[in-house]
Amino acid sequence: MASFEKPLKGELILEELKLRQRAKEVVDVEEERVKVIIFTCGRNRYAFYGAEVREFLPNCEISWVPGLPVYLPGLINVRGDIESVIDIRHFLGEEKVGSFAGLIAMAVRDEFHSGVMIDAIKDVVDIPISTIHPPLSTLDGAARDLIIGVIEYGNETISLLDIGKLAAKITL
Amino acid sequence: MSDPGENHLNLLLFTVGGVRFGCDSGQVAGIADFTGAAAEDLFWLHEELGFQAPVVAYRSPTIVSIRTEGERPYRVIIDTMEEIGAFSLRDIRLFPALLEPLALQKGLWGILPRGEKMVFLVDFQLLLKMRAKQIDDKWRKEIS
User: Which residues on neighbouring strands pair with residue A153, listed in sequence order?
Assistant: First the structure.
C-alpha cells in the first residue's frame, strides 16, 4: 500500500519544473540599462549619460565675456536664463575651430549646470550598465581626466564622459 | 551704486571692442573726449578687463572720470556711448555661479539682456580697488 506521506512522482516533476521556471525567470530579469547620448566633437565620438543632459540647443549665439579662460567662451541666453558655455574641445585635446556651428548640450549634475559645445548628436541608445567598461589604463591624452568608462558602439570604442569630472575641472 | 532700495538703476551703456557694457551712472563724475594724451590715472578699459584680442579699435574714445571718494583719481577710456537710462533691477541677471568669481575679478557683476545681445555691467569702483591694490603691491616691492 502506497504511503500518503511520500510525494507522488507527478508532484516531484511539477516541483522540479517550477524550480527550473523560477531559475529561468531570475536569468530573464532585464539587466539594468542606462541611456547614453553619443555625439561628435572634433575628430572623435564621445558619450554623455542621457540623464546628465537636459536639452540640446541649436543656433545659440554665444556672448563673449572678456577675461575668461579659453575654455569658457562666454554666455548664452536660454529663455531668459543666462548660462555659461564650456568649450569641451579644450579638455579633449580636439582641434579648435574658428566659428562654432554645432549644438550646445545643457549639462546638469547636482548644483552644476552649464552649456557644453558639441558638434553633432550621433545617436541616443539604451545600453546595459554591464557593458560600460572602465577606461583603459593605457589611455593617455587630454581626455583622460574626463572619462568615466568606455562603451562599444558598432565597431568603435567610445569614451563615456563624466559631467561631474568636467564640473570639478571647471569649478573655481 | 545707486540706492539698492530703488527698483531701478541708472545705467550708462557703451561699447568697447564691439562688446556692450554698462555702468551705474552714479559712479561717473564726468565725461570728456579723449585727446590722445596719456596720464598715470588714465586706463584703457579693454586693458582693465583683460581683453585678449591683440588690437581693440576705438571709434570715438571717451574718458569717463570715476567718483573715487577720496581715493586716487581714476579715469577710464571707453568707446562709443550708446545710452543713459533707468533700467529695472528685475531685468538685471547675475553671472552663472560657474563664472561669477572670474567675472568679479574683472569688475563685472551683472548682465542686462537686451534682445539677443547681452550688456555686461561693470563696477568701476571695484576695478579701481583692484588697480589700487596692484599699485600698492608694486610700490611695496620697489621699496623693500
Answer: A156
Beta strands in chain B (DSSP E): 8-16, 19-24, 28-33, 42-44, 62-66, 75-78, 81-88, 108-114, 117-122
One-letter amino acid at B48 equals E
Tens digits of residue pLDDT in B26-35: 999 999 999 9
**Given this model, what pLDDT does residue A59 score?**
81
| Residue B115 contacts A, CB cutoff 8 Å | no
Least Cα distance to A117 among A157, A61, A160 occurs for A61
Report ipTM (2 d.p.): 0.82
Separation in Å, CA of A67 to nearest CA in chain B: 5
SS in 3 state form for chain A? CCCCCCCCHHHHHHHHHHHHHHHHHHHHCCCCEEEEEEEEECCEEEEEEHHHEEEEEECCCCECCCCCCCCCCEEEEECCEEEEEECCHHHHCCCCCCCCCCEEEEEEECCEEEEEEECEEEEEEEEEHHHCECCCCCCCCHHHHHEEEEEEECCEEEEEECHHHHHHHHCC
Q: Does A170 touch chain B (CB under 8 A)?
A: yes
Cβ-Cβ pairs closer than 8 A, A with B, add up to: 63
Residue B6 to residue A107: CA distance in whole angstroms: 36
pLDDT of A90 higher than 80: yes
Segment B63-72 shows an average pLDDT of: 85
User: Nine-digit cell at A50?
Assistant: 542621457
CA distances to A91, A107, A153, B81, B132 from A139, rounded to whole Å, are: 14, 24, 18, 53, 48
Beta bridge mates, A22? none
Confidence tier at B3 by pLDDT (50, 70, 90): low
pLDDT tens for residues A9-47? 888 888 888 888 777 666 666 678 999 999 999 999 999
Domain boundaries, chain B: 8-143
Amino acid at A4: F
